[in-house]
Design a protein that fits this description.
heterodimer, A: alpha+beta, 6-stranded mixed barrel, B: about 270 residues, alpha/beta, Rossmann fold, 7-stranded mixed beta sheet, 4-stranded antiparallel beta sheet, about 35% helix, about 25% strand
Chain lengths: ~425, ~270
Amino acid sequence: MRKFFDFLALAGQGILHRQLRSWLTVIGVVIGIAAVVGLISIGLSFEKTITDEVSKVFGVDTFMILNSEVFGGGAHGGTADEYALDLELLNSIEGVRVAAAVRQRTGFVQGQPDAEGNVLQGFLPVMGLSPELVTEFESFTGELEVMPGGRLIEAGDVEVALLDYEISRRLRVEVGDTILVAGDGDAELNLTVIGIMAPPEEEDSGGGPGMSFSMSSDGDTISVPYETMDLLWGPADDVLITLVRTVEGYDVDDVADRAEEVLTERGSDISAVTYSDISNQIGQFTAIASALLGGIAGISLLVGGVGVMNTMFTSVLERTKQIGVMKAVGAKNSHVWAIFLLESGLIGLVGGIVGTLLGLGIYQLGISLINRLGSGFEMITVISGGLIGITLLGSFLIGAISGLLPAWRASRLPVVDALRYE
Amino acid sequence: MPVLELRGVTKDYKLGKTTVRALRGLDLEIEAGEVVAIMGPSGSGKSTLMHILGALDRPTSGRASIESSDLSQLKERDLVTLRGRKIGFVFQTFNLVQTLSAQRNVELPMTFQGVGRGERSRRARELLEKVGLGDRIKHKPNELSGGERQRVAVARALANDPEIVLADEPTGNLDTETGESILALLKELSVRDRKTVILVTHDPEAAAIADRVVRLRDGCVSSSARHGGEGAGTPSPGTNSEAGAGREVASAASREPQSGARHADEVGHA
């Protein structure tokens, strides 16, 4: 051990002596390590940010039911596939505390006449919402805001409607007015407007969770109570999403499995998605992304390693005479080997330290850039001690491994030849 | 009991396809505490002999022993230990490690022998003090004069308190005055510390401090002349007939060489 530190000091001297070349070599390692640290940190940040958002929305007791095509089928976001659902059956499953669903149709809608008696009418999206969505699943819906004088859909409401701000203007209706909505066949209802959604502030800064499904992005949705949809269009076969909260003490994954089983038996083409399902998916995705980024970073590390090897070969050649002298004064082959190996390891380590700092700097810059550009949610900064530790150890090893061959060659130099070398 | 003993030593080198025989059955004995100058023209085998005397190389045939250890019988690692502990080297070009201070250079041989830091540092300072560089211990080689560098090298040679100090042209890169002071230092090692000092040299002044001058020619000892107790300053009894020693002859002549009567073949084969 004592010799180790002595040799470390000798190796350090060797590096300091050839400052410029050493630093040029170090730069090669620095770039590689900076790339590794920066890219992987950004990957970790993405993963953490997304899983945090998801866990905020889900909590520990909630799962959602989607069309089986949607989750895991590849068709994320965008137009969600609809499915049939027996909400009562779902509510009766053991462990289910409350379930709320959203179904959507396009219906014929007629507003109020204007001064000249013209009535605006047309086919508009009609959404059926469980009142529990607002009371129980606010984390999903975000905070819904209605214009003064109105209210949201509540339990027990039937012939009521909640209008987007935009469409309420076009239909020329106020709270208290009625609109006509026609469903299948000759089913039609006069619905009383109970509320008008506040117009979205520009670029809705609160943003709400990434999970919130589109309530009114196009501004012409007419929302009605979930049960009212039954009156217009019959039993639900057009559900977009169902949210389920479990009874405390039940395992959310168990309940989700049971719900999936029961509903599938009933003919619903669905899958129940829990937080762990989503985080697994995110994990898989980010693992692939990380592997990709790591691969790119690895290539630059390889280049850095080759640089170290080259420098070490030159160094061995340059110091042939010195190696001879060291051997003449009693250095064993293993001593020479250790000194050169430590030297190349140190080059790697110095590159690792500088590269890690640089990588973290670039990473912070990247995060603040992403956050400034405003992608809707705040990226979380993740400084992983494990990553830094592994990187530093790795950079030393890359240096040492690159130095293996040159150091071996140095150690095998015959002392007489080395002394004679000019 | 000689400290160094060579019997019928040969050494062959391969140069391309030809084999060069650098030593041809050389016999030599060196007693403990002796100062021996090895002289001879270029190509006479001086360097090769020095390599064997310094346990840097093994003979092709014959027996070379240092303190009764037969070099041919030793493994590479034992050879390293032998030269690390028993032999100190002084080179013509000093061969100090440029990146290390005088003190660290002197510590180097001790580092390889696993001597502790405190002990190393203490001994290195002591040795530098002894060679007259007590105030230069922190200087790097490029901050020292040639003579000072060679003093550091002498101190380094003494680091592990070896029995034998092997100096290869120690004055070759120094001016006369500086060279003389280095020679005096080496002589002192023998007189005061009972070290065996072997000088491989072209320089008659260097040879002058020797108790005995061994001359090589074509890989053999051509003569081995003892000075007796005449000490430093006594000119070497050069043999005029020796080829390639023009400088030697001229120099020796200018100093009125004493008779070559003591020039006797002790162990050499002609």
